[in-house]
Design a protein that fits this description.
Elements: H1 6-9, H2 11-14, E1 21-36, H3 42-59, E2 79-85, H4 87-92, E3 100-108, H5 114-123, E4 135-150, H6 156-169, E5 172-183, E6 196-205
Antiparallel strand pairs: 1-3, 1-4, 2-3, 2-5, 4-6, 5-6
């Protein structure tokens, strides 16, 4: 049985070349978990732990007796995050990292169903995770523009400026101020200057 690996099989989505890239994305399935606050907060870290615990639990479930119709060996997808700020911060016109609103998510293969997720949640009940806050959602992002950012998260504005200029120059505009980040590096083990993060903006024709 051939193992599917997003790094090799879906390079267009997860390995963009230098410069902005335009894509139209179909419906995809994600484990999602919403929260507020700075990425350094305990709640944020617990959310990541929860999503990865469920994702790896699903990946290895058939080895522990859970039958999943259509199952094929696969590599766990990377962590992703949708980012916004609180309504209070929007009204004030300024914000700090404590005002961030996020939806963290990890994509799942199409054969993963709600019943599989619930089974793995039961297996993890004693781990002290945020299991009751996790949903299996189908999300269609549609038309997007994205760019690979290499470096610290604090330096992302430079890459966003390149992406936003490209969007304007090519006759598009943002649909929302919310943006997505896809974390291709383990930011607990990688030096800030070497981090690889895909920055994604949702757009429409102007």
């Amino acid at each position: 049985m051939t193992k599917s690996d997003w790094k090799k099989d879906e390079k267009q989505l997860y390995q963009p070349k230098t410069g902005p890239q335009l894509l139209t994305l179909p419906k995809m399935h994600y484990l999602t978990l919403k929260g507020e606050g700075a990425p350094a907060s305990a709640g944020f870290q617990k959310a990541i732990e929860t999503l990865y615990s469920l994702s790896y639990g699903l990946k290895f479930a058939p080895r522990k007796g859970l039958e999943i119709l259509g199952y094929n060996e696969y590599a766990v997808y990377p962590l992703e995050g949708l980012w916004d700020i609180t309504e209070k911060a929007q009204a004030a016109g300024h914000w700090t990292k404590d005002d961030l609103v996020y939806t963290l998510m990890i994509r799942q293969p199409d054969f993963i169903q709600e019943s599989h997720v619930e089974t793995i949640k039961k297996n993890l009940e004693k781990k002290g995770l945020m299991l009751d806050q996790v949903k299996l959602e189908t999300i269609e992002e549609g038309l997007i523009a994205q760019i690979m950012h290499v470096g610290s998260f604090d330096d992302e504005p430079h890459s966003f400026k390149i992406l936003e200029d490209w969007i304007q120059e090519n006759g598009y505009e943002r649909k929302t101020k919310i943006h997505k980040e896809i974390y291709l590096s383990d930011f607990t083990k990688t030096a800030p200057e070497n981090l690889k993060t895909i920055l994604r903006i949702f757009i429409k024709k102007r």
